[in-house]
Amino acid sequence: MTAPSQAPGHSTDAAPTRRTAPKAARATLRGRPELYTRYAADQALLNTTAKKVWTAAFLLVVILLPVMPFSTRAWMGNLTLVMIYAVGGIGLNLVTGFAGQVSLGHAFFIGIGAFTAAFVGGASGREAGGLELEMWIWLPLAGLVPMVIGLLVAPLAARVRGLYLAILTLGLVFLGEHIFREWAYVTGGFIGRRAPDPVIAGFNVNQRQDIFGVTVESESIFYLFCLVILVVLALLARNLARSKAGRAFAAVRDRDIAAEVMGVPLLRTKVLAFGVSSFYAGICGGLLAVAFGQITPENFGGLSGLLLSVEFLAVILIGGVATISGSIIGAAFVVLLPRFVEIASGYIPFVGGQGSGEFLTVFQANQILFGALIVVFLVLEPRGLFGLWLRVRNYWKAWPFSY
Amino acid sequence: MTGLEELIGVLIRGLGVGSTYALLAVGFVIIYRATDVVNFAQPALMILGAYYVSYYVFTVGMPFPVAVIASMITMAAIAALTERIALRPMVGEPPFAAAMVTFGVFVALFILAFRLIGTNVIVVGDPWGLERTELFGVTVNQVDLAKIVISMIAIAVVGIFLKRSRVGLAMRATALDQEVALAQGINVGRMFGLSWAVSGALAALAGMLIGTSAGGVSPLIAFVALKALPVIILGGLDSIQGSVYAGLIIGVAESLTRAYSGTYAPWLGSNFDIVVPYAIMILVLMIRPYGLFGTKEVQRV
Description:
The complex is a heterodimer of chains A (403) and B (301).
Chain A: H1 14-29, H2 39-42, H3 49-64, H4 73-98, H5 106-121, H6 135-157, H7 162-182, H8 184-187, E1 193-194, E2 199-200, E3 203-204, E4 209-211, E5 214-216, H9 218-241, H10 244-254, H11 256-261, H12 266-292, E6 294-295, H13 297-300, H14 302-319, H15 324-344, E7 351-352, E8 360-361, H16 362-380, H17 384-398
Parallel strand pairs in A: 7-8
Antiparallel strand pairs in A: 1-6, 2-3, 4-5
Chain B: H1 3-35, H2 42-60, H3 64-87, H4 95-117, E1 132-135, E2 138-141, H5 142-164, H6 166-176, H7 178-183, H8 188-211, H9 222-226, H10 228-235, H11 240-264, H12 276-287
Antiparallel strand pairs in B: 1-2
């Protein structure tokens, strides 16, 4: 990459340069796409042509997926789950990947988001109360309530480090299960409650609709809705990561004492990381509730809550620590792998469905597979699938001259 | 029964449960000190230990005390083998990766236990049952006394072993600094295996004690073993003494909550005793981030 000062038209006189720079940039860009003449271009979200093209192509593909002939409703459901997991994964990546605070309590915040959504959006019934508000109220609240709780917990979490922090946050999952079970007015108690209807201005995004005479399946609409949410939240997270706050996260992660010495407020940075992460977890929880249809305290607390938290750790560790795209890749991997194992279970020895009498159930096989993959990635490629992609990219960048 | 007698009964029960927590926590701490790994496989080792006690008593036909010792030896062997196969290759890798490996071992052993036990409830065949005995004018369950006495003897034996024996000295040296220990001619790898073996044996003993409860032995007693996590955090990750105190504190607090929260604090909801260990852990970490007896990390710039 060439330093900006070597660009033609760049002189010590700043004012005219700024006027002419875009023109000069455009001229030099031809054939030399990675020559930046401005820092802003270097730091841009899509700083290379390849990125622009591929992001656009990828977006086009995922938008068009619902109308593809091979997209069955079940697969649209799976892909929706990928989007939702990606939102949660980005959240965990902000606190664990970017800010370096290992959290096993992600399931707790997801649960709060889900039950907030169910309470605010759900109908008041025999077993639990509800406010019956529309989605444009309950979805932001599903993020804000966990965020407030995250901000309250964070000062405590900021005091402890490493394993102490991991087990402290694990404690949250167990406390959460108790609260979800006992606060029956909000959560429906042991049996849980129905998910809220995702209605915006009378339009249900999880229901078959006729749009301009075309019948669109409920899965497709909800898929597109989750896609929009994911794109918006991913952009926000990416922007946060490359802002002052994001650099503070990285500084705290890499060496907290050094960060403090350089004037990064440790407490405020960690609290911010936990707060934003909890917001993402809450949105993930609200959407997850809609995808599940019925939510129970069992989904988010206790041992299954611990497994959910580990699943999200798998999302970021397999996908790529401290990358937004990595979280999305990881989410796709973690959500879709069990489906493939399920399909392939007929061909793998010792693995069968629930009650098939085989040695391992599909669920157990997945747990083992995730555990093994996390270890393999931690040891061999700590940057995850995103790191593998970087290796491939860098190989071809210099090809055929590998050094 | 007067209120005071009831209170003493509750306290004894709490101490009984707490001493089994302490037993499990000591196992965690021994492995953590030697290898810097939090052993998430401990609950699975515990279930398998309880299963083997039952197996030796009912299938092999051993007398109960012999069966317990046989089970402890079996679990020590399994734990040492686990260390050799799964954990030794992780030496020098990030501690988080090693912790994930123990989590994988947990899943594998848990599935094994699930296959062995199945859906039937098995009992460990302990001689105490529901027998009660008179102690200082208060009637208490023998099994609670057995839990306290056996746990404390086992922990004391481990403590004396670490403090007085040559091998114990080598283990402490390894815990202090692996490289220096290696330079002094200590076989560090063997010390790792030994730590796991001791920990496995303690887990088997704890499994037996927990298996004496009314529910018998089922894979679900893993939940009980998870409570050792708040115990070790409360005591401080690297302190055996701390885990004993923390185990007893948490056991008693849990027992008191179970007995009295319905009367005095109904707003806590039913079954609050299950989360009491976590609540206490969080409260204590607020005041002491390294637990009650943990080594305070010195920050050097």
